[in-house]
Specification:
Order of helices and strands: EHEEEEEEEHEEEEEE
Helix content: 10-25%
Strand order of the largest sheet: 13-12-11-10-14
Oligomer: single chain
Structural class: mainly beta
Largest sheet: 5 strands, antiparallel
Number of helices: 2
Length: 168
Amino acid sequence: MEVAATRWYLIQCKPRESFRAELHLRNQGYECFHPTIRVEKVRKSGPQWVTEPLFPHYLFISLNGIEDNWYPIRSTRGVSKLVTFNGAPLPVPDQIVRDLRSCMDSGKKLSTPLTFVEGEKIRIVDGCFKELEALFTARSGEERVIVLLNILNRPQHICLPIQAITHL
């Protein structure tokens, strides 16, 4: 008799419903892992720290290939689908989940400070402009910023990922 191992799989959630999906899957007895990150959001009342999924629209679920009933998953509130490749669910390597859990359990805070003031001097810490100073100009969506960089004695506006800059 073959004993199937429990493996981690990836669930795609409906937009802004990964916490709901996690709650309903746990209520059905499934083991889930939903890594989160603390992010500073600018609100009308001022900056506020909120918890968001590290991987928006996704969470991990532990399933046994033979013993677990996979059918209720797709009809669970907040769940869009089980991620498949060529029509079959592909397990996530255990080491990835172990590393993510280790990072979360170790108390390392995964956070992204997003408060920059227009005109503030910043340093670029990643990419081809690494180590150059620039001025913060504006945000461009949730994950990108526009900075003013002096290139060849001319000011140029450049769009960068927010992780590529830091306070000076």
